[in-house]
Protein backbone atom coordinates (compact mmCIF):
# COMPACT_ATOMS: atom_id res chain seq x y z
CA UNK A 1 0.00 0.00 0.00
CA UNK A 2 1.31 3.45 -0.96
CA UNK A 3 1.23 6.30 1.55
CA UNK A 4 -0.54 8.47 -1.04
CA UNK A 5 -3.54 6.23 -0.43
CA UNK A 6 -3.95 7.91 2.93
CA UNK A 7 -4.51 11.33 1.38
CA UNK A 8 -7.52 10.46 -0.76
CA UNK A 9 -10.21 11.54 1.67
CA UNK A 10 -10.69 8.26 3.50
CA UNK A 11 -11.31 8.12 7.24
CA UNK A 12 -8.54 6.95 9.55
CA UNK A 13 -10.41 3.81 10.65
CA UNK A 14 -11.03 2.80 7.02
CA UNK A 15 -7.38 3.40 6.15
CA UNK A 16 -6.21 1.44 9.18
CA UNK A 17 -8.48 -1.49 8.33
CA UNK A 18 -7.19 -1.57 4.75
CA UNK A 19 -3.59 -1.44 5.97
CA UNK A 20 -4.23 -4.31 8.35
CA UNK A 21 -5.91 -6.37 5.62
CA UNK A 22 -3.15 -5.71 3.09
CA UNK A 23 -0.35 -6.44 5.53
CA UNK A 24 -1.87 -9.48 7.28
CA UNK A 25 -0.38 -12.06 4.94
CA UNK A 26 2.96 -10.24 4.90
CA UNK A 27 3.10 -10.20 8.70
CA UNK A 28 2.25 -13.88 8.85
CA UNK A 29 4.95 -14.61 6.26
CA UNK A 30 7.55 -12.77 8.35
CA UNK A 31 6.60 -14.76 11.44
CA UNK A 32 6.70 -18.08 9.60
CA UNK A 33 10.16 -17.27 8.21
CA UNK A 34 11.35 -16.72 11.78
CA UNK A 35 9.96 -20.04 12.93
CA UNK A 36 6.87 -18.64 14.67
CA UNK A 37 3.39 -20.00 14.10
CA UNK A 38 1.34 -16.76 13.81
CA UNK A 39 -1.80 -18.57 14.95
CA UNK A 40 -0.05 -20.28 17.84
CA UNK A 41 1.61 -17.34 19.62
CA UNK A 42 0.03 -16.75 23.01
CA UNK A 43 -1.02 -13.16 23.68
CA UNK A 44 1.10 -13.01 26.84
CA UNK A 45 4.17 -13.71 24.64
CA UNK A 46 3.67 -10.69 22.37
CA UNK A 47 5.32 -7.34 23.19
CA UNK A 48 5.57 -3.93 21.57
CA UNK A 49 8.44 -1.58 22.45
CA UNK A 50 8.42 2.05 21.36
CA UNK A 51 9.67 5.48 22.47
CA UNK A 52 8.05 8.81 23.15
CA UNK A 53 9.50 12.14 24.25
CA UNK A 54 8.39 13.48 27.63
CA UNK A 55 7.39 17.16 27.92
CA UNK A 56 9.89 18.88 30.17
CA UNK A 57 8.20 22.11 31.26
CA UNK A 58 7.16 21.97 34.90
CA UNK A 59 4.20 24.33 34.66
CA UNK A 60 3.01 26.25 37.65
CA UNK A 61 0.03 28.36 38.67
CA UNK A 62 0.62 30.57 41.65
CA UNK A 63 -2.36 32.15 43.36
CA UNK A 64 -1.57 35.20 45.46
CA UNK A 65 -4.05 36.86 47.75
CA UNK A 66 -3.88 40.65 47.55
CA UNK A 67 -6.44 42.22 49.87
CA UNK A 68 -9.63 40.54 48.68
CA UNK A 69 -8.54 40.07 45.08
CA UNK A 70 -6.78 37.09 43.59
CA UNK A 71 -4.06 37.45 41.01
CA UNK A 72 -2.92 34.43 39.04
CA UNK A 73 0.65 34.23 37.80
CA UNK A 74 1.59 31.58 35.25
CA UNK A 75 5.08 30.41 34.47
CA UNK A 76 7.20 27.37 33.82
CA UNK A 77 10.42 25.71 34.84
CA UNK A 78 12.21 23.52 32.32
CA UNK A 79 14.51 20.64 33.13
CA UNK A 80 16.74 21.86 30.30
CA UNK A 81 17.41 18.54 28.57
CA UNK A 82 15.65 15.82 26.62
CA UNK A 83 14.01 12.82 28.33
CA UNK A 84 12.76 9.81 26.37
CA UNK A 85 10.42 7.13 27.69
CA UNK A 86 10.78 3.66 26.16
CA UNK A 87 7.70 1.65 27.04
CA UNK A 88 7.12 -2.06 26.47
CA UNK A 89 3.60 -3.47 26.67
CA UNK A 90 1.84 -6.78 26.13
CA UNK A 91 -1.82 -7.80 25.99
CA UNK A 92 -0.89 -10.21 28.78
CA UNK A 93 -0.76 -9.19 32.46
CA UNK A 94 3.03 -8.79 32.72
CA UNK A 95 5.37 -6.30 31.06
CA UNK A 96 8.94 -5.21 31.85
CA UNK A 97 9.67 -1.85 33.51
CA UNK A 98 9.97 1.21 31.24
CA UNK A 99 13.31 2.73 30.27
CA UNK A 100 14.07 6.43 30.71
CA UNK A 101 16.85 8.09 28.72
CA UNK A 102 18.24 11.39 30.05
CA UNK A 103 19.95 13.82 27.70
CA UNK A 104 23.05 15.92 28.44
CA UNK A 105 24.24 13.62 31.25
CA UNK A 106 27.32 11.41 31.33
CA UNK A 107 25.88 8.93 33.83
CA UNK A 108 22.59 8.00 35.44
CA UNK A 109 21.96 10.18 38.52
CA UNK A 110 22.46 8.37 41.81
CA UNK A 111 19.10 9.76 42.94
CA UNK A 112 17.38 7.38 40.51
CA UNK A 113 18.93 4.24 42.05
CA UNK A 114 16.06 3.56 44.46
CA UNK A 115 13.56 3.51 41.59
CA UNK A 116 15.73 1.13 39.56
CA UNK A 117 16.47 -1.08 42.58
CA UNK A 118 12.71 -1.48 43.10
CA UNK A 119 12.46 -2.49 39.41
CA UNK A 120 10.03 0.33 38.67
CA UNK A 121 12.16 1.55 35.77
CA UNK A 122 15.51 1.31 33.99
CA UNK A 123 17.66 4.36 33.24
CA UNK A 124 20.26 5.31 30.66
CA UNK A 125 21.86 8.46 29.23
CA UNK A 126 22.82 9.84 25.83
CA UNK A 127 23.97 13.22 24.56
CA UNK A 128 20.72 13.84 22.70
CA UNK A 129 18.37 12.08 25.09
CA UNK A 130 17.20 9.82 22.26
CA UNK A 131 17.79 6.10 22.01
CA UNK A 132 20.84 4.93 20.07
CA UNK A 133 22.42 1.62 19.07
CA UNK A 134 24.31 1.12 22.34
CA UNK A 135 21.31 1.94 24.51
CA UNK A 136 19.07 -0.34 22.47
CA UNK A 137 21.56 -3.16 22.96
CA UNK A 138 21.53 -2.58 26.72
CA UNK A 139 17.73 -2.49 26.67
CA UNK A 140 17.73 -5.77 24.72
CA UNK A 141 19.84 -7.37 27.45
CA UNK A 142 17.45 -6.04 30.11
CA UNK A 143 14.43 -7.34 28.21
CA UNK A 144 16.05 -10.75 27.66
CA UNK A 145 16.94 -10.96 31.36
CA UNK A 146 13.35 -10.11 32.27
CA UNK A 147 12.01 -12.78 29.88
CA UNK A 148 14.41 -15.35 31.37
CA UNK A 149 13.16 -14.54 34.86
CA UNK A 150 9.55 -14.95 33.72
CA UNK A 151 10.42 -18.38 32.33
CA UNK A 152 11.90 -19.31 35.72
CA UNK A 153 8.68 -18.13 37.38
CA UNK A 154 6.58 -20.21 35.00
CA UNK A 155 4.90 -17.28 33.25
CA UNK A 156 6.47 -18.43 29.96
CA UNK A 157 7.31 -22.03 29.18
CA UNK A 158 10.94 -22.83 28.44
CA UNK A 159 10.38 -23.52 24.75
CA UNK A 160 7.78 -20.98 23.60
CA UNK A 161 8.94 -18.07 21.46
CA UNK A 162 8.52 -14.45 22.51
CA UNK A 163 7.46 -11.98 19.82
CA UNK A 164 8.86 -8.43 19.99
CA UNK A 165 7.24 -5.86 17.69
CA UNK A 166 9.33 -2.77 17.00
CA UNK A 167 9.78 0.01 14.47
CA UNK A 168 12.67 0.40 12.05
CA UNK A 169 14.61 3.06 13.94
CA UNK A 170 18.33 3.07 13.12
CA UNK A 171 19.18 2.07 16.70
CA UNK A 172 17.83 -1.42 15.94
CA UNK A 173 20.63 -1.98 13.40
CA UNK A 174 23.05 -3.62 15.81
CA UNK A 175 24.63 -6.91 14.80
CA UNK A 176 24.86 -8.10 18.42
CA UNK A 177 21.14 -7.80 19.10
CA UNK A 178 20.14 -10.84 17.05
CA UNK A 179 22.35 -13.14 19.13
CA UNK A 180 21.10 -11.66 22.41
CA UNK A 181 17.47 -12.18 21.46
CA UNK A 182 18.01 -15.60 19.90
CA UNK A 183 19.62 -16.88 23.09
CA UNK A 184 16.31 -16.31 24.90
CA UNK A 185 14.11 -17.42 21.95
CA UNK A 186 12.88 -13.87 21.32
CA UNK A 187 11.93 -13.07 17.73
CA UNK A 188 11.94 -9.39 16.72
CA UNK A 189 9.62 -8.22 13.95
CA UNK A 190 10.44 -4.79 12.50
CA UNK A 191 7.50 -2.89 11.02
CA UNK A 192 7.77 -0.72 7.87
CA UNK A 193 8.70 2.80 8.93
CA UNK A 194 5.84 4.57 7.16
CA UNK A 195 3.17 2.43 8.81
CA UNK A 196 4.36 2.18 12.41
CA UNK A 197 1.87 4.82 13.59
CA UNK A 198 -0.93 2.56 12.35
CA UNK A 199 0.48 -0.83 13.35
CA UNK A 200 2.17 -0.34 16.72
CA UNK A 201 -0.18 -0.81 19.70
CA UNK A 202 1.66 1.86 21.70
CA UNK A 203 1.25 4.45 18.94
CA UNK A 204 -2.34 3.54 18.16
CA UNK A 205 -3.94 3.26 21.59
CA UNK A 206 -1.55 3.79 24.52
CA UNK A 207 0.57 6.92 24.10
CA UNK A 208 -2.36 9.32 23.69
CA UNK A 209 -4.04 8.48 27.03
CA UNK A 210 -0.57 8.24 28.57
CA UNK A 211 0.24 11.84 27.65
CA UNK A 212 -3.06 13.05 29.09
CA UNK A 213 -2.46 11.16 32.34
CA UNK A 214 1.15 12.36 32.45
CA UNK A 215 0.06 16.00 32.30
CA UNK A 216 -2.35 15.46 35.19
CA UNK A 217 0.31 13.69 37.24
CA UNK A 218 2.75 16.57 36.72
CA UNK A 219 0.10 19.12 37.68
CA UNK A 220 -0.87 17.20 40.81
CA UNK A 221 2.70 16.98 42.04
CA UNK A 222 3.29 20.68 41.41
CA UNK A 223 0.14 21.55 43.38
CA UNK A 224 1.33 19.37 46.27
CA UNK A 225 4.73 21.08 46.34
CA UNK A 226 3.19 24.54 46.11
CA UNK A 227 0.66 23.83 48.86
CA UNK A 228 3.47 22.68 51.15
CA UNK A 229 5.03 26.17 51.01
CA UNK A 230 4.01 28.83 53.52
CA UNK A 231 3.73 31.45 50.76
CA UNK A 232 1.81 29.11 48.44
CA UNK A 233 4.43 29.58 45.72
CA UNK A 234 6.38 26.98 43.80
CA UNK A 235 10.04 27.19 44.84
CA UNK A 236 12.88 27.01 42.35
CA UNK A 237 13.30 23.29 41.74
CA UNK A 238 16.66 21.60 41.33
CA UNK A 239 17.36 19.50 38.23
CA UNK A 240 17.24 16.43 40.47
CA UNK A 241 13.79 17.36 41.78
CA UNK A 242 12.48 17.99 38.26
CA UNK A 243 13.79 14.66 37.01
CA UNK A 244 12.13 12.95 39.96
CA UNK A 245 8.80 14.63 39.22
CA UNK A 246 9.00 13.68 35.53
CA UNK A 247 9.97 10.04 36.15
CA UNK A 248 7.42 9.39 38.90
CA UNK A 249 4.68 11.11 36.90
CA UNK A 250 5.50 9.04 33.81
CA UNK A 251 5.55 5.75 35.76
CA UNK A 252 2.14 6.45 37.30
CA UNK A 253 0.70 7.71 34.01
CA UNK A 254 1.89 4.61 32.15
CA UNK A 255 0.16 2.41 34.70
CA UNK A 256 -3.06 4.37 34.21
CA UNK A 257 -2.83 4.12 30.41
CA UNK A 258 -2.04 0.39 30.31
CA UNK A 259 -5.02 -1.22 31.98
CA UNK A 260 -5.82 -4.79 30.95
CA UNK A 261 -8.62 -3.54 28.72
CA UNK A 262 -6.55 -0.82 27.01
CA UNK A 263 -3.65 -3.19 26.34
CA UNK A 264 -5.86 -5.88 24.88
CA UNK A 265 -7.76 -3.38 22.73
CA UNK A 266 -4.47 -1.86 21.53
CA UNK A 267 -3.23 -5.18 20.19
CA UNK A 268 -6.61 -6.21 18.79
CA UNK A 269 -6.98 -2.91 16.91
CA UNK A 270 -3.60 -3.38 15.22
CA UNK A 271 -4.17 -6.99 14.21
UniProtKB/TrEMBL annotation:
Residues 83-257 form the DDE-1 domain. GO terms for molecular function: DNA binding. It comes from the Eukaryota. GO terms for cellular component: nucleus. InterPro entries: CenT-Element_Derived (IPR050863), DDE_SF_endonuclease_dom (IPR004875). This is DDE-1 domain-containing protein. Transmembrane segments: none annotated. It comes from Streblomastix strix.
Amino acid sequence: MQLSYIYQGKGKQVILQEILEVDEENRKSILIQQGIDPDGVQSRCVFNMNETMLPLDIKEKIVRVRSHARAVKSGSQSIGSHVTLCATVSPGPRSPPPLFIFGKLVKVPEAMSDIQNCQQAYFDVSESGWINSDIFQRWTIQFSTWVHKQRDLGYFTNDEAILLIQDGHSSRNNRNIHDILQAENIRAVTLPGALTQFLQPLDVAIFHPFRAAYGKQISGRIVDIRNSQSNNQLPKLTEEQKRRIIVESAIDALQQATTARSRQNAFLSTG
